[in-house]
Amino acid sequence: MASEGRNNEDIYSTQQSAMLFQRYRHRQIEDTQYTPRNPTQIPLAPLHRRTSAQQNHNHTESPVPLHSVQQHHSIPTDNAATPNGEPQRRTTILPIQPFPKTTLHRMAAFKSKQISGKWTIILTNATLTFVPMIVFASALLLVIFGNSIDLQNFPGYPIEEYYFIQGISPNSIIALTSFITLWTIVCYGCLFTLTSFLHANEILRLSEGKDAANLPTAHEFAVLLMIVSGSLMGYFRGNKCILKRPLRQHFIIQRAIIWSSVILFLCFTILIGDIWLHVSTRSLVAPEVISQSNTVMTKDIPNYGRKLSTGCGLSINGTPISIEYSFAENACDGRMDMLMGGLEAHRTARGTSNHNEVVILDFPGLKDFYNETISILVEAKAPAESSYMASTYGVATMFKSIGKECHITDTRFSWNCADYSFGGTMTHPVMMPGPELLKPLLNVVKWVMAAKVDGEDTTFEHLENDPDIVIDGASLFTVMHCETAIYKVDYLKLGSKYIPQSVKPANISVAELIYSPMFPGRLDGFEGFGAEILASQFTSSALSSASKSELEHHWAQALAKLTIASASGIMDSVPIKIQFHILTAMPKTPFWLLFSATFIYAVFTLGLTVTATRNVLAKAEVRDVQARMGFEGLVVLLLDPKFGRGAASSMGDLFRRSEAGQGYSDRVTIVKTGTGGWSWSAPPSRGSV
């Protein structure tokens, strides 16, 4: 109960001071014996009752006796009697310089001690907030526009939802966002300080008699001081004050709540964006150093890409191939093309080459080509965990079984495809068409193929009832409609994954150059490439296929791999486009949320700064009022009136210091009042000013 009583008295004391502050326009001095040292200055007496000895001491040392100031709303300090025997009520008011009414007076006040520190307060708070937030916003943009790369495809990270940042680790990005959040929380009080200039200007305007009904009550003023100090409790009390009596116009509190809501919303938004980025930012590539010892280097850049060579001495249907490429001269020196034995092509097809390797791109498939995947030619010596972007060529193939259309039979495994002018009897495991039966169209060639594979007696019994397939004991026989497409591919290698970034159809000349070795007679004097390799791969894939669709897909992939492998002898190595040591995936939504909140935070700070500056320039007294808008200022005014009653450009100006410069001259004590209560007191120390 005692604690509750003390708290009630503290609240009452705050309410008293607040009420005095809102009523300072009634400057009435009751004590005729008091003459201020400065006629233009109205002093403030401490809001507590002192003993008679203390009053006499104040009267001799200070020009302000305890009973010297009276106001419209009085606050009793004791039960002293007037000469008529009636109880006397004494009040105090806040010291405010009279407001200059002329431009000359206002200019004089502008140059005086009264507002000499206004720029320190405004510019310090603005600089601590605006400059860092602008720098942070610029740093976020630099991360995106200075380091992001345009990846067209990445499994698990849709390009519509993520930015891909090269060279910056997730820890660095998270450290930046964390620092933004920390700085926002630490310096958010600066914004409340800037808003205090707006409140000071409004209270000053209302106290001059303009719409006095909107002046705050003592309780509202106490809540306002809590809000201006950045107190969340003050913010909630302000909302409660508005909701408790909605019919009452809480003008000052409403304005304070609006400004506070904007500040807290921006801080909360920055915090949410930071947490979101913490949770969802991922590292896609671990640091990898590619040493020069295991690569063919061009200016320290690995030559892992592939391009077509020129002058390889190839011909199509007896016509020499002459395609103009802006490539290095003598690109075929030391290379083996198909007409010279195809050694590199055979090694690549069998997976024994030290230079070339065939891989399948990691993606669902080409939507405009039957959703089939692409087999590409890559560098075999690239480290397994290396990450880079390079160019190459790729092949996609589609197979569709058409045995029923071609009237396949198990009699000597014959077929007759009238629509394709292709028929015969199986004499080899794979029967490829001649060049006259090919139907090229841009980068695509259409053709028909017959194939027979052998297994165990019951290996293919699950396909026995399919009309497009003939099962004869342990043998499977069918005819396939085939389409092969050649593409120019830009791919991203991330460890063991090869992710397509750009897939463009090759021109018809390049397409024919790549697929021609697969067909007998397509190249002059050449009977086709890799028939025995293709037969072996057809057999192994047929044994593992559980359905006709799987069989078609596996055979199509086998032929695509063999086709691009056949082109390895006419490919040159070229430098990669980009080499990644660090690649980070950062979601777009939380990034723009954080950036927008940070940028708006900076703009909002600038707006408050401009408004505060304009208010002070228009009315210099705003700075004097703002210096007293805080619990610190109220305490000084109540307990150290001799020094604190004058003009002030900051709260520090309100303190009275000792002559020796050893801190504040007075010591605060608690004294018992004549009515049995308690009050704070700060009796002057000996030798104090």
TrEMBL record:
Keywords: Membrane, Transmembrane, Transmembrane helix. The chain crosses the membrane at residues 119-145, 173-198, 218-236, 256-277, 591-613. The keyword Transmembrane applies. It comes from the Eukaryota. Residues 68-82 have a biased composition (Polar residues). Residues 49-91 are annotated as: Disordered. This is Uncharacterized protein.
